[in-house]
Amino acid sequence: MSVFELIGTLITATAVLGYVNHRFVRLPDTVGITFMGLLVTLVLTMIGRVVPGAVHWAASFGERLDMPEIVFHGLLSVLLFAGSLHINITDLHRQRLPVLILSTVGVVLSTLLVGLGAHWLLSVVGIEVGLKYCLLFGALISPTDPIAVLGVLKTAGAPKTLETAIAGESLFNDGTGVVAYLLLLGLVTGTAEPTVASVAVLLGKQVVGALVVGLVIGYGGYFMLKGVESYPVEILITLALATGGYSLAERLQVSAPLAVVVMGLVIGNDGARHAMSATTREHLFSFWDLLDQILNLVLFGLVGIRLMSLDAANVSVFAATILLPLVVLARFASVAIPLTAMRSLLPETPHAVKLMTWGGLRGAISIALALSLPSFPGREIFVTATYGVVLFSLLVQAPTLGPLLRLLKVGRRPAT
């Protein structure tokens, strides 16, 4: 399949799923597209009992789309830049402590809780999977997905302090998540030894390196924007930052997601205030808003299409199902423990633990990581479990976050 055919297939399938949802199901667009993909999966599974080739056709169609490649070397850079572009750095600075704690200590704690819990639960039901593999699953499922989170927060009506904390954590916990995932992947494949020195070096290279690269490239773009008065050129410069900057960060072997978030923060704050005219700001932010919405639909369409490659009759549904409550409980503990321990140092936000637990969504990034796992005993259990957690996030947590805010009487008027 050529690149053009790949893009055409993905956009066409997403458009069809989106059209059917909008005309007949009427769920919110991103949630509805994923739901339609799940519905198609169930229908194909039933048809497969009568027409055996149907499931095989769906599987081969979905597997032609290389999800890790499309997500990590296509959509992610643009979506993260678009998301961070709208984060007010003053608000983020006020919430710096909870963001820092949750994106580091919280992710590590959740990884350990999910890994140890999965190892115990699977052994209870008679499935033996090595602890290192369970910890690898914990590492890929613990960081919250900034793309899923930001999309929901736009309409949920969360208090501003809580919205900034959840969004900031999601944007920054990629650094910690990548370090944990790479360390455990090296342990699984036998290419690395998890020592204190190796953790410190990897953390410094991935996170500190990303911050430096993001600031250098971001302010390089800032000075370019300051010297231009043409909004098409300025939009092109920001596109170059998001895509070229992400690629350069990967080439330098630092955390590319974190680097592009820093670039977006620089342009969305200093750049918007000091390097753009009012006309440029209007056009540039409108462009990125539209691009963000379109690519979000494509990304969740990709999730829906990939669901069609699952043979629901043959996956380890039971084993995967028992891991879902474990992931939610681990999220609760990884939020509650550090925030409670540092309560006196943090701003008071009513029901923060409950809302940050329920607002900690997982999305396409977790699926892409799961699909990139090497082969090992129990791999399919964790791939299926990842799909289950993501579907629960998108079809249960995301639609109910707004009603939960209103039930707890801490919401504000949702964005329109």
What does this protein look like?
79% of the residues lie in helices and 0% in strands. The model has no long low-confidence stretch (mean pLDDT 82). The chain has a single domain (3-407), classed as Na+/H+ antiporter like fold, CATH 1.20.1530. The chain has 416 residues and is mainly α.
Task: Spell out the blueprint of helices and strands.
Elements: H1 3-25, H2 29-48, H3 53-63, H4 67-85, H5 89-94, H6 96-124, H7 131-141, H8 146-156, H9 160-189, H10 196-226, H11 231-251, H12 256-274, H13 278-307, H14 317-321, H15 323-341, H16 352-358, H17 364-371, H18 379-407
Beta percentage is under 5%
Name of the CATH architecture: Up-down Bundle
Tally of separate domains: 1
Taking the alpha carbons of the first and last residues, their distance comes to 40 Å
The helix/strand series, from N terminus to C terminus, equals HHHHHHHHHHHHHHHHHH
Keywords:
single chain, 416 residues
Outline of this structure?
This protein has 416 residues and is an all-alpha fold.
